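--- STAGE predict ---
source: upstream dedup step, 1 unique chain passed
mode: sequence only
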Amino acid sequence: MTKTQAIAFSRNGGPEVLEYVDVDLPPPSADEIQIRHAAIGLNFIDVYFRDGTYKAAHLPFIAGKEAAGTVTAIGPGVNGFAVGDRVAYAGADGAYSVERNVEAKHLVKVPDAISLETAAAMMLKGMTAEYLLNRTFKVGPETVLLFHAAAGGVGLIAGQWAKALGATVIGTAGSQDKVKLALEHGYDYVINYRTENFLDRVRELTGGKGVDVVYDSIGRDTFPQSLDCLKPRGMFVSFGQSSGAIENFTMAMLAQRGSLYATRPTLFTYIATRDELTACANALFDIVLSSKVRININQTYPLREVGRAHTDLETRRTTGTTLLIP
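--- STAGE serialize ---
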């Protein structure tokens, strides 16, 4: 039994509950692989677990869903991996650590042409963009879409990917700097929601028709206006709630606005099987290697300073992808 370091919390609350602690690191057990992290991705789902929006399986809890690193040991019964392999994952709790054991089923090998830092920056966000654009609503050349938080980690990847699929891509962002950033990453139009009414602007841009699909990770602040941006039989995709949970939603709202569809997907449903995980990851690797999507690492923080990183994320001071470095 050796020791490693991790970020854990023993109670829900603000960034101050996150503590840098020593934890035991046993040898990997059956079907596990031990890895040393090179970089860890920061995501809003980490905030949801910390503040109690999502219930942690136990306390104390090591947060984090996404990281990349190098295999240091292989547990019994594991095939297809070797010590020294470069690997990445999204979906296994406990990423806020220097070293860890993780079930082999969560891991994918990182292509040689992609750095571990880039892999850590894109797994959760990039695979989220993949399922949203290719499977939740299949985007193509005829699609007109609205993507909120266009300058965020998922938003910057999704804008480029949607443009590569031929869509007309409309986004929202909260400052002129973020508007500019999104326009550089595939968006045809970006609405500054602090200075413009995004619903009125979407109607103007679409000639009053509305969009085929709205991708909304904001929640309370953009509801029900997101529904009002849709054309009849359009789809509302709610995949996050950075401003708080949507309240007072009723099925009648969908009928009143033109037989709309609504879904609340999560990445972990879309990568639940090994085949789904590898297909999703490979699609992401392929489009990054094609240079149609570039991954921006716009902020890095030492793992010890994760509290500062959470504060900056929650107050919308970050753009693109943020990494924690052990």
